[in-house]
Amino acid sequence: MSTWSHTSQMQFRTIDGLAIRFAESEDRDDHALLLSPWPESLLAFEPTWARLAEHTHLVAIDLPGFGHSQRCDALLSPRAMGQFVIRLAEAFGLEKPHVVGPDVGTGASLFAAALYPGRLRSLVVGSGGAAFPLQLGGVLRDWVEAPDLEGYRRADPRQIVAGALTDIERYELPQFVRDDYLSSYDGDRFVESMRYVRSYPTELPVLRDLLPEIQTPVQIIAGGRDPAVPPVNAEFLHERLPNSKLDIIDAGHFTWEDRADEYAALVTGRWGALKGADSRAHDRARNPRRSSTSRDDEDQTLETLRLGATRNQDREEK
Q1: What top-level class would CATH report for the domain 7-271+310-317?
Q2: What is the mean pLDDT of residues 223-249?
């Protein structure tokens, strides 16, 4: 099926000894891993699922310690999680998949591409801390900079998550999705998941130095009014990644829900352009004597993909 209406369609698989929750669409020739944002779950992709699944086999994942997947303290950092992303691709038999990793998936996806060159076809990232020195705002900055976690251990995790979800501006969360988000971080699950973003001060400088080496095509989608992860984080990535495209859209933090149609269009458009370029490159390899005009057209297409669009028109006018 290409969509879901209740949690019974989600399953668990044991990977490296961890119970990992996932949802999967119909098989296709192309594949994509979707990494859950925080403090949500894989159900964050519910409004984009049908569109993304039209031509691509999707495997949506609750990352370890997020959503309803089992936690492993050793994986609660972007670099370690990036290595686990590759294990996910192996476990599901995905050869060179696309990866969609908004929010906390941003750092993990980028580390995966940096540490395993050529293993991933493309990345979609954004709305996740990336700049160093840190450029964070709102409660996210408080969570990262808090001297310790004791105050958060005493707090009601459902109230913390519910407070974060008030930044969703347009999308009306279905009740089963809201319930899933809240139950994902019951008990100590929220406070323990904070360890991931609290590793940013040590992890992001390492990532910064790796960015110029990442040749994987990267689509960066960010909300122009994101109070937690300001657009400067997306611009930081775009300036350093050699093969990136940046779109800053009219939204706050939760771009994948508040601007689901636009988000899905950007993602599928990028996938389609890359597939077209792959097909033409394959044809050229089979027929090296094709016309120079056709070769010039393909080279121009590939150059466009490497450089990408710098920003949306709305952002430029600002």
Answers
A1: alpha beta
A2: 98
**Do the beta carbons of residue 253 and residue 222 sit within 8 Å?**
no
- Cis, bond preceding 133 (omega within 30 deg of 0): yes
More confident call, 130 vs 303: 130
The dihedrals phi and psi of 27, each to the nearest 5 degrees, come to: -70, 145
pLDDT at 7: 42
Residue appearing with tokens 């008030």:
166
Tokens of 251: 């939204």
Tens digits of residue pLDDT in 172-181? 999 999 999 9
Domain boundaries in the chain?
Answer: 7-271+310-317
SS (H, E, C) the chain: CCCCCCHHHCEEEEECCEEEEEEECCCCCEEEEEECCCCCCHHHHCCCHHHHCCCEEEEEECCCCCCCCCCCHHHCCHHHHHHHHHHHHHHCCCCCCEEEEECCHHHHHHHHHHHCCCCCCEEEEECCCCCCCCCCCHHHHHHHHCCCCHHHHHCCHHHHHHHHHCCCCCCCCCHHHHHHHHHHCCCCHHHHHHHHHHCHHHHHHHHHHHHHHCCCCEEEEEECCCCCCCCHHHHHHHHHCCCEEEEEECCCCCHHHHCHHHHHHHHHHHHHHHHHHHHHHHHHHHCCCCCHHHHHHHHHHHHHHHHCCCCCHHHHHC
CA dihedral 285, 270, 90, 35 (to 10 degrees): 170
Q: What is the pLDDT of residues 57-78, one digit of tens each?
A: 999 999 999 999 999 999 999 9
